[in-house]
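Entry for adenosine-5'-triphosphate complex. Fields follow.
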Amino acid sequence: MAVERTLSIIKPDATRRNLTGRINAKFEEAGLRIVAQKRIRLTMEQAGTFYAVHKERPFYGELCEFMASGPVVVQVLEGENAIAKNRDVMGATNPAEAAPGTIRAEFAQSVGENSVHGSDAAETAAVEIAYFFSGLELVG
Ligand code: ATP
Ligand code: MG
């Protein structure tokens, strides 16, 4: 299996509740290494660009407002099979369907305010990492 990198975001509902450290512990316990990390506040425009794939969905406006509603922690996670592994650690989008022990099962508040984002494929991971980080900021 190949070593991969994936883009993770700790969302505003989680930073608001001071959960950054507990969420990072879940990544590290799963063998994912945080090779870049910064806390930023997204504008509506930046949130809209990041989630542009969902712009026709009914929840797009609400999603962008939520992502711009408070600080987020953007990070790059590295490890064997990191993209799928991170999705496993996150759990299902809807916390009511997330497996026990996953981040969303333990921390998410709703299908919208679900604490974390993770890239869903190698191509999106590359685009999403480049959206937030320069090569110099990735320290493996
Ligand atoms: P993410 O892309 O944030 O990692 P995901 O891949 O599990 O999550 P997507 O289908 O890509 O889920 O949806 C992106 C985000 O949009 C979700 O994480 C959630 O915050 C929001 N979202 C998805 N479905 C709904 C919905 N039905 N109502 C409100 N918000 C939603
Ligand atoms: Mg997604």
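NOTE: Residues 120 surround magnesium ion (ligand 2) (CB under 6 Å).
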